[in-house]
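Next comes the chain:
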Amino acid sequence: MSSHAPNRARVIPLRPAPAPREPLWRDVVGDVLRRERLAQERTLKDVAEAARISVPYLSEIERGRKEASSEVLGAAARSLGLGLAGVLSLAQQELARSTSTRMPPGRASMGQVRLAA
């Protein structure tokens, strides 16, 4: 008797696994706006009225479904007491944090992401 190992099928993937998807800017900005609104314990209606934009539109922005103009983002930011630069700074920090954990070693240490507003 021979001591052969049982035959095992080897699975060969047809294509490589996709790389992790980087977050979209609109998702990051929406998350920042929602987090700030909730931290202030304010409703969508309250913030939307203060920003003079519709509640459904603000909701779409917060969920990353709409890419808001700088004017709309500025109005939403001001209604939260932040200003456009504040929201963009928070979004940049969030984006840098989330992408640094996804980048291969060596790439993440290249520095921070810089955004011009």
Remarks:
- The helical segments are 25-39, 44-51, 55-62, 70-79, 84-100.
- Residues 25-100 form a domain with the 434 Repressor (Amino-terminal Domain) fold (CATH 1.10.260.40).
- Confidence is low (pLDDT under 50) at residues 105-111.
- The chain is about 50% helix and 0% strand.
